[in-house]
Specification:
Number of strands: 12
Organism: Planktothrix agardhii (strain NIVA-CYA 126/8)
Catalytic activity: ATP + protein L-histidine = ADP + protein N-phospho-L-histidine
Radius of gyration: 46 Å
Structural class: alpha+beta
Protein name: histidine kinase
Shape: rod-shaped
GO molecular function: phosphorelay sensor kinase activity
Distance between the termini: 55 Å
Strand content: 15-25%
Order of helices and strands: HHEEEEEHHEHEEHEEHHEE
CATH class of the largest domain: Alpha Beta
CATH architecture of the largest domain: 2-Layer Sandwich
EC number: 2.7.13.3
Amino acid sequence: MITVYEFFSLSLYQQLDRQLLILADAATHSLSEVKEHKEAFETDDFRGLDDDGDLDIPWQNIQQASQGIEWFDQNRQLIAKTGKVFPPIDLSHYHWTYIVDGKKIRTLTLQINKESELQKQIIGYVRVSESTKPVERVLIKLRLGMMLGGILVSGLTAFGGMWLTKQSLKPIEQSFEKLKQFTADASHELRNPLAGIRTCVEVMQSHPERIHPADIDKLKAIASGVNQMTSLVEDLLLLARTDQDSIPITTNLVIIPMNELLEDLVEFLLYQAEEKGVQLILDMNNEIKIKGEGNQLWRLFLNLIENAIYYTDTGGKVTVYLEQQEKWVWVRIEDTGIGISPEQLPFVFDRLWRADQARNRRKGGSGLGLAIAQTLAQNHQAEITATSQLGKGSCFSVRFPTLAHT
């Protein structure tokens, strides 16, 4: 676009220079008459021609209001001038452009010679000038048009790009929707076979006398695999339902006493913590209530506390804090576990993601626990964040709005 503007600008100034050259050439034929009739040359009747055999055009016929003509003798002294535009400088300067009162003036000076048998003799000079205002006016309109055109083109390009992007994403979105539907359907359909396998295993384990001693460990492995598969299927089904917005959380909101929920949850996980040698502590003072769905809140904090227990070594500590600060209710789960590196911390809530050190410690996890926790927190208009120091522990905080701000 800049190149186009420069091309038009150059063309307009070249056209202006050609006009000046034509005017100067016409004015040169009047030099002798101007010298003889200084007083009469400004009248409309004056038509000085030199009868030198070429085509003479009176300068009055081509001079415009925005132009000026000056005649000089061979000593560069001004003889006469006519018009309205004159550069404020003597003839010794041959610049093309001057600026007068903030306005540009374009000038052209021609040397007038009288040819003799021996040599050319300088008899005078003609300087013609013209304001560049008409050219600048055209260039301003051109710039405005190009700017508006650029805005229009940019708008059309952006709109076209958005439309093309939307069209190109449609197949991907459709495939993604089908994938989510398949995940939900597959998770739902897998529940019944897994329930049947679990029932069979439990029946067999209830009659150990019928089991060959060599098959006992195999049966335990089957039971463990079924439990892991069941947990994974339940996680996938929960996420699939959440993605499809099929959980009517807004219609199931009730007042939940967080003190009681966390007490029951800590009591439920206490045996698991003691079995691993981890101290599980609940730190809370006042009775605090929020609006929520009980099962989802239970699952949210179950995932967070279980994670903390899993990744805390024997002799470590997991502390659950409950407190209210102004318009927010905070639940924090702090542990003295292995921690998460700063590079991996931004990805802890991604689905199917686990830190490298976590993969070596927990073989049965699905990598969905924290993703589910984040989804359930968002269902309650809550914000979940994580901080951690590698080798020192982690802290997961969930911030709920109070009853007054729900």
